[in-house]
């Protein structure tokens, strides 16, 4: 059995093999029918890049099923993510510029608050489940560190909640305040 870490999606219909189809019996190789192309060959242990899941026809089908009282299938949902990072003191102008670049690179970023030694990033992530949303969030800072010029800080906090919980907290007057104003701001 092939194990896949959270957030690393296997190609639909994948058997875990890379490259061409392999026959497990001594008989003739099974014929391939139209379907997804095989995943490109990767070195052992090499991971695929994590990306947000785009909503499409399946998401619309889920909404239709829910309105008819049917059980929804395993489709992407929205998750509110709060990522906290901290580390050595860095110049405020550089931190602000780096967070603005991160917001440009990651367009779903709602708001960032920062100081010279810590920052908080809040955004919506679309993922199948909490594990996938958390996996993407935990890789966000490291994957954008070089391209955005982010400080070499470590992740010190992560909160991932579903959309319903987020709105329930706001309605009850506790939890994170709505992300206003949107953008990059000092504490």
Describe the protein in words.
The protein has helices at residues 57-67, 92-105, 130-148, 163-172, and strands spanning 77-86, 109-114, 118-127, 154-162, 183-186. The chain is globular, with a radius of gyration of 20 Å. The longest helix has 19 residues, at 130-148. The protein is built from four helices and five strands, in the order αβαββαβαβ. The chain is 29% helix and 21% strand. Strands 4-1-3-2-5 form a five-stranded mixed beta sheet. It has a domain at 77-186: 2-Layer Sandwich (Alpha-Beta Plaits), CATH 3.30.70. A hairpin with a 3-residue loop joins strand 2 and strand 3 (118-127). By secondary structure, the chain is of the alpha+beta class. It starts with 56 loop residues before the first helix and ends with a strand.
Quick structural overview:
Helices cover 29% and strands 21% of the residues. The chain has 187 residues and is α+β, with helices and mostly antiparallel strands.
Q: Which key phrases capture this entry?
A:
187 residues; 5-stranded mixed β-sheet; 4 helices; 5 strands
The main pleated sheet reads as:
5 strands, mixed
Class from secondary-structure proportions: alpha+beta
Look at the structure and give the CATH class of the domain at 77-186: Alpha Beta
Provide the spatial order of strands within the biggest beta sheet: 4-1-3-2-5
* Uncertain stretches: 1-40, 47-56
Q: Based on the structure, what is the oligomeric state of the protein chains?
A: single chain
Strand content: 15-25%
Number of strands: 5
What is the second-level CATH architecture of the domain at 77-186?
2-Layer Sandwich
Mean of residue pLDDT values: 73
Task: Report Rg.
Answer: 20 Å
Give the helix proportion (percent range): 25-40%
Order of helices and strands: HEHEEHEHE
Number of helices: 4
**CA-to-CA gap between the ends?**
48 Å
Shape, per Cα inertia axes:
globular
CATH topology of the domain at 77-186: Alpha-Beta Plaits
